[in-house]
Sequence to fold (374 residues):
Amino acid sequence: MEQLIRIGMDTSKSVFQLHGVDAAERPVLVRKLRRRAVVPFFAKLAPVRIGLEACGGSHYWARTLSGLGHEVVLIAAQHVKPYVRRGKHDAADAEATCEAMSRPRTRFVGVKSGEQQAAQMLFGVREQLVRRRTQLSNTIRGYAAEFGLVAAQGLARIEPLLARIAGDATVPALAKELFETLGEEYRAVCARYAAIDKKLLAHHRKDETGQRLAAMPGVGPVVASLLGVKVTDATAFGSGRDFAAWLGLTPKNHSTAGKNRLGVITRAGDEMLRQALVVGATAHIQQVRRGRAKASPWLAALIARKPPKLAAVALANKTARMAWKMMITGEPYRCGPSGQPDASSPPSRPLRAAYGGGLRPALTAAQHGADMPG
Fold:
């Protein structure tokens, strides 16, 4: 076999397709392997650069193959698809991966450790429990309404509603049994959720970066821990603006003929992290409106003239960019004289037009001109 310079590998549950090229970009390795043969094959192979799509199991294979002395890179599937020539089959996907990893502008996904994946799983399980808890509470409310029993909003109203159902003589015995079944499942889900939250807080207390990030307004243990888990290498982003764009917190650009036309945010990137940032920003704005938190002059002006949801997205964008700066430099969060970071530095015209205010992040009033590159 001629000297390989890189291999694209298409993974699946049991079949793995390889496509390798030499220095002249000629395919010299086109092979299909069963799962049990992958590790023995690469153990005998000289160190080579291997590319995989960032999909299910890819981080495991990246760690395994790296342990055999190879250099492994992960590529987002949407960046591989443009290189698929025609049709959809394993060989074409492996060839496309091999081609995509050779492009100088291709961005790679950071390989997560087993501990990072376990922490990410913690958030995934927590989100599923939240959905199931909401589903059960809505089910209980819906069925209770059929018997003329309603309750005010809030999860705290579910247990009193179940107690009223149990003591209502007009509710049939069969319905009471079914409500009890739903109530037992609801309590079990709530208990599991509380246990997961304790694990999340324990993980947060051990994370030095998360402790620093949690000091920012609108960033609690959940958002701070999510940033630590999802962002494996903050240096992969050239600036805070790039980081915010990666999260999908920047407006879509439909500009043409020298005219800037900006739309809604792109919603690209990680949905869970973007949602957490926006929810945190929304909560902070609510606290400001109720007089329970101080607002920077920028945020106060934004709240006064823009709708709440737009203000929340703008604040989430700003928070993401400050978080990137803190992850890069390792510095703590520092407030300005008003108790909030100074935001007097004007942003670029497109962002000012999209969000209606300055978005250039700053950690202190003294640093507002040099906090973020670009």
